[in-house]
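hey so i finally got around to running the thing on that chain from the lab meeting. sorry it took forever, my laptop kept dying and i had to restart like 3 times. anyway pasting the input first so we r on the same page abt which one it is
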Amino acid sequence: MRRGNFLLNKLIPLILFMILQGAALWLMVHNSVYQRAFTLHHLSDVRHFLWKQQSDVLSYFSLHKQNEQLAAENLELRKKLLGFVYPDDTRIQPLDSVFAFMQAEIVRNNTSRQQNYIVLNRGERHGIVPDMGVISDRGIIGIISHVTRNYSRAISLLNTHFQISVRIKPSMATGILRWDGQDIHSLTLMDMPQHTKVAMGDTVVTSGFSLIFPADIPIGTITETSVKQGTYLNASVHLFQDFNSLKYVNIVQNLHASEFLKLQEDVHE
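ok and heres what got predicted. didnt touch it at all, straight out
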């Protein structure tokens, strides 16, 4: 009881002080043009500051939706920018008649191991199967290896077991690109003939020799070359894609893959 009376005795003067202070400010503002303008000016600054903070908070919570929209726009742009499958053929076919793309979000992404993998929020019920490619707007990401009903796992490009056929622009020389398990920003283009014309800054792109990825997807640039065993030329390739910043990707399906595989089976019979 004493404690309650003590708190009440402390609060009453404070409340009265605040009431009187508010009344004094009200009288000062309404009886002085200068004070009114000064007060309204600063109240306006406070209001604008609060609006800015509210806008920043709302923008932060809307980033996820904005990123999804940007990823969808990138998907549509990719279909247009990749052009055509047979540019020298009079029977030109749009690329998306051969390759289909599906947007996906990364659930888990490893970059600290020798055999890294990526988990995506797309699975069997979305039509995903093993051996589909995974790309971003900045290059190759990996290949689907395992699929469940709602999720899929892809072998990352940053996996020492992963390798892909690529070529160099403008020389059109081909080679095998592989990660050595060291720098996540750099891969090695291996076993090219020593006479291969390579210049610093040349762009490395997909060769199109596999059924998984379309041709001419940019991967990175040449930063260094070295000769191995006096015969082969190796080159370091700096990736366009920073794997630590990955969030949205596109899963690639070759709609004609079964036809190509059937032709290979017929040849071996």
